[in-house]
Amino acid sequence: MLTIGAFARASRLSPKALRLYDELELLRPARVDPHSGYRYYAVEQLERARLVAWLRRLGMPLARIREVCALGPADAAREIRAYWSRVESETAQRRDLAAFLVDHLLDAPRKDTTMLQLRYCAHSDRGRVRTANQDTAYAGARLLAVADGFGPAGAPASSAAVRALRFLDREELPAGDVLNVLEDAVRGAAEAVRDATEGSGDNGTTLTALLWTGSRLALVHIGDSRVYLLRDRALFRITHDHTVVQSLIDEGRLTPEEATAHPQRSLLLRALGTGEPDLRLRDAEPGDRYLLCSDGLPAVLPDAGIRELLAAGTPDEAVAALVDAANEAGGPDNVSCVVADVVRTEA
Questions:
Q1: Is the full-model pTM beyond 0.90?
Q2: What is the DSSP letter of 21?
Q3: CA torsion, points 311, 314, 315, 318, in degrees to nearest 10?
């Protein structure tokens, strides 16, 4: 048996932490002296104690540590992998926001003061199989958006969501407050969807949108529509699907190749009004090309095919080519595409 001091040194946990974990029933001592109340630990408890210490250094909440410690090694490893994947995603969003806030507060001059604008095109197609189109696509001087409705009232849901954001295309935006403005607008869009579907839980929509400030793009994303960035002919996917299948990929239970044929690949974990959207800011560069699309496109076209078609022609030509390719591949779902180029303002 080890005293609490010796056990603390061996496990790299402080005596104070050990007393807290005892109270929380996370790491109980092997024996407590009935007279002095002094705690003693068995050598066999060191492995669990070290695991708790490592997980705390990762920043994992105590409630989740308790769950991980109750699992076998393989399941615990999957839980840790899934937790860290979420931490990295959230950290990336906070990093982007922090960089924006630093620049805004210091009023740091941009290295490139060239005036920029968007050139864009949007189109939504029913596809070859579906009897109705539940997608809505929109492109304007400031707002780009795709919504993919589901349920009997999916079409009114997606239309209501995008319509509720369209005021952003007309109003001047406060540069330092654009994420708050977008977040408030998304709450209004969720209310509009509830009104359009009469609050039925069987109906809803995803929502993915970019809001242009003149030098940056504010992104809001919830669901399984996607945003791709084509920069220097390299394709980058800048959204993360909120689906059961994507969570299985994150946890290492599925490979991306296996996911394409998974029977639950369209099952959403989050949709507008039923979860928190991802919000972030991105700097824009002349020559960037953005693609917003519903899941009907990546369901039938691999990223390599999307990159090839997206890289060719004007936004109008790229949209037409992508929609045509999805339909030529069978068109099993509605497909919507918005393509926008970041270009220098003509004098």
A1: no
A2: H
A3: -50
CB-count exposure of residue 149 (10 Å: 0-12, 13-18, 19+) = buried
In this structure, the number of other CB atoms found within 10 A of the CB of residue 173 comes to 16
pLDDT for 258 beyond 80: no
The predicted-structure confidence for 271-310, as pLDDT tens digits, reads as follows: 999 989 999 999 899 999 999 999 999 999 999 999 999 9
Asked if 160 and 196 touch (Cβ cutoff 8 Å), the reply is yes
Report the DSSP pairing between strands 2-3 and 234-237. unpaired
Q: Strand pairing partners for 340? A: 120, 290
C-beta atoms surrounding 284 within 10 Å: 21
Is there a contact between 319 and 137 (Cβ–Cβ < 8 Å)? no
* Unique residue bearing structure tokens 């999957």: 78
Angle at the Cα of 173 (from 169 to 176), degrees rounded to 5? 145
Mean pLDDT of 227-235: 95
Residue 181 CB contacts under 8 Å (≥ 6 apart), including other chains: 168, 173, 174, 211
Burial status of residue 338 (CB atoms within 10 A of its CB: 0-12, 13-18, 19 or more) = buried
Q: Is the pLDDT of residue 113 over 70?
A: no
β-partners of residue 278 are: 221
Decide: 29 and 4 in contact? Cβ < 8 Å. yes
Q: Which pair of structure tokens corresponds to residue 4? A: 């609490």
Q: Is the Cβ–Cβ distance between 148 and 299 less than 8 Å?
A: no
